[in-house]
Amino acid sequence: MASKANSINLLEFHTPQMRAFHLTWVAFFVCFFAWFACAPLMPVIKGEFGLSVAQIANINIAAVAITILVRLVVGPLCDRYGPRKTYTGLLALGAIPVLGVAFAQSYESFLLFRLGIGAVGASFVITQYHTSVMFAPKVVGTANAAAAGWGNAGGGAAQAAMPLLLAALLMAGVSETLGWRVALIVPGVAMLVMAVVYWRYTQDCPAGNFSELRAAGVPVESGGKGGWASFKAACRNHRAWLLFVTYGACFGIEIFIHNIAAVYYVDHFGLSLKAAGLAAGSFGVLALFARALGGWLSDRCAGRGDLNSRVTVLFVLMVGEGLGLLLFANADGVAFALAAMLVFGLFTHMACGATYALVPFVAPSALGGVAGIVGAGGNVGAVLAGFLMKGTGDVRQTLFILGGLVVVASLCALGARFSNTATSAAAAARA
């Protein structure tokens, strides 16, 4: 029976492991592009619908709130039906609200579709699940982080590309009111195309698809039929909930920055829409290498030490993230703000990669449940950050408070340390 890959050969496409690696990060990129496509256009949408600060906060909260539930669900669904069917379904169904938001005629309808779009953020869990079942322990951290990082760059790409797409439409003679709507149709169509590609060219694990393997009596990654049993097993594991908090403090911050960065640069530093989009997009571009760097660092330290070396890496990265965020919150000039954002963004993306470098080891028989719980933590963090901004009414003050909370949350990483038995088992698997 085919086994997990022990190496990552980026130019290889004929093996099911590398085919899944490439297609899962591309699908993730498309989903994140669609998820954040509205954010850089908010200055235009704000003017058209006459949105208040509170209404913008509600839209940002809606964009991530539903993802909490969907992430909790899709992890066990991967265990039950396999990542291939789950991803295809999410791409096809998620395209509906993405296309729908382009036709919104009021704040209420826009808010409703924005809520629906949040479901596509659950794509991250499927991506991490698929790479986890395809790659062996000694490279799984790097594989998870690289796929997540490259896919995550879709958020940054949306920040930079959507204003440029709108500008191109305006130059072609399309009105601004119609232009942003036409621009938002593009990611919806891309999701439908990707659904077809994912269904046709991927399989659930190295040995084949879960349904066929179970029919043949072959055990699969989840150790059973998955679903509810996987979720219950994950819920009983305290490390899953500690990583839920750490991921909320790194990925939650990442989502929050994606949603407010463009407006923040326009309102506080007077940048144009295109300049603000490029500045905000630079934060997302870090995901191209920073997440992978966090996963690679975790793999390297675990190779030279033990499983708890991964815990230490995560703790250090989160402290760096919190301190960098405090610098960003106190930046007075646009140049210093951009530099500070890139510094704390580097730590943030690396911490995200280091978190999911730990996930495959928390409860291997309940991988989908753990991946879903931890992934949901990221969105809980983003929702809480949105409520915090709504409560303070000031982005800068919100950023400062979040910086302190991230430093405190880093202690949860230390609480997730593994026993000697678990570290010995991981060392044996790595060997």
From TrEMBL:
A Pfam family: MFS_1
Localization (cell): Membrane
Principal location: membrane
PROSITE patterns xrefs: MFS
Residues annotated as domain Major facilitator superfamily (MFS) profile: 20-421
Keywords for this protein: Membrane, Nitrate assimilation, Transmembrane, Transmembrane helix
TM ranges: 20-42, 54-74, 86-104, 110-129, 150-172, 178-199, 240-265, 271-290, 311-329, 335-359, 366-389, 395-416
Bilayer topology: Multi-pass membrane protein
Family listed: Belongs to the major facilitator superfamily. Nitrate/nitrite porter (TC 2.A.1.8) family.
Name of this chain's protein: MFS transporter
Protein source organism: Massilia suwonensis
Taxonomic classification: Bacteria, Pseudomonadati, Pseudomonadota, Betaproteobacteria, Burkholderiales
